[in-house]
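Justification of resources, computational component.

The compute hours requested in this renewal are based largely on the per-chain cost of generating structure records like the one below. Each record pairs the submitted sequence with a full structure-token output. That output is archived, and it is also reused by downstream analysis tasks.
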Amino acid sequence: MAKSAWELIDLRVLCAVARRASFTAAATDLGISTAYVTKRIAHLERALGTTLFLRTTRQVGITAQGESVYAWACKVLDAADELDQAAAQSRGALVGTLKVSTSHRLGSLHIAPVLARLRQAHPGLDVWLELVDRRVDLIAEGFDIDIRVGEVHEPHLVAHKVAASSRILCAAPGYVQRRGEPASLAELAQHDCLLFRDRDRPYTTLRLQGPQGEESVRVAGPMGSNQSEVVRRWAEEGLGIALLSRWDLAEALRAGRLVPVLPQYRQAADIYAALPTRASLSAKLQLCLQFLREHLATGPCALDLDAPDGSGR
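The structure output for this chain reads:
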């Protein structure tokens, strides 16, 4: 049987360029040089006898023929990956690449050490973790999993809960002594609230579950950040009231640097893994999700949910 004129690396490069609409960005994603990307695309175009991309000094556009080849390339690469996985799983191992995105605080404290243990258990796995404070486009940017706090609403993604958590209100003892504790959720509007904008999601209107069900209040404050660690430190310095995840506050609550405010109220903040629909049945990703669930629940990488929150629950 004659050998195909193209190779799997050509298809991987093609898919990366198609997703990113850039030779340079594709090279960065793949960890290779832009010159090598150019070489592989040229080789594939010669092998197939067609132009796949239109290049200008400002952008790279995929042709109609390129779109067709891209669709087939995705199928071929998926099949090749499944073949690798089937062979590896027969040996009880994972192989291939795993590209994960999540937020800075969650990623650095918990996801990174979990992935380190996953890599130790499966040396054939190549892991890339990207910490970003925005919603990534999994398909366009080539991510396998996006781990996020809060539900997944995009219709083209499949959500898997990996851990249960909630957000609670807190402040420094000094702030409560100076300004008093609000007696109701509505009174939050009269306080300095430290605004946390989690990955492009504003929380100037807070919706929380309380004794009467869901209630909302519009809050304001002189300071805000997209980094939860910054907001937590400001809260510890007595600058206002913050709404943050329990696992993020656990150590400060236990040490007394922060105290719960209106502990009968909370906001659901479960942790989900979002996957592209076509990847949701991948055996490799299912095993990775199970690994995340287990290690976020118990062990040295687990989310700390045991600190007192004043709710009596």
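The domain at 166-268 is CATH 3.40.190.290 (D-Maltodextrin-Binding Protein; domain 2). The chain has ten helices and 15 strands.
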